[in-house]
Amino acid sequence: MTKRKSLYLIACTTDKFKGINQRAKYIYAKSVLFRLSYLYIKKEYKPKTIYVLSAKYGLISENDLISYYDDNLVNKRKIDRKLWAKNVIKQLDKLMKGKRENYKLICFAGDKYVEFLKKEFLIERPLEKLTIGYQIEWLKKKLSPN
Question: Number of folded domains in the chain?
Answer without folding.
Answer: 1
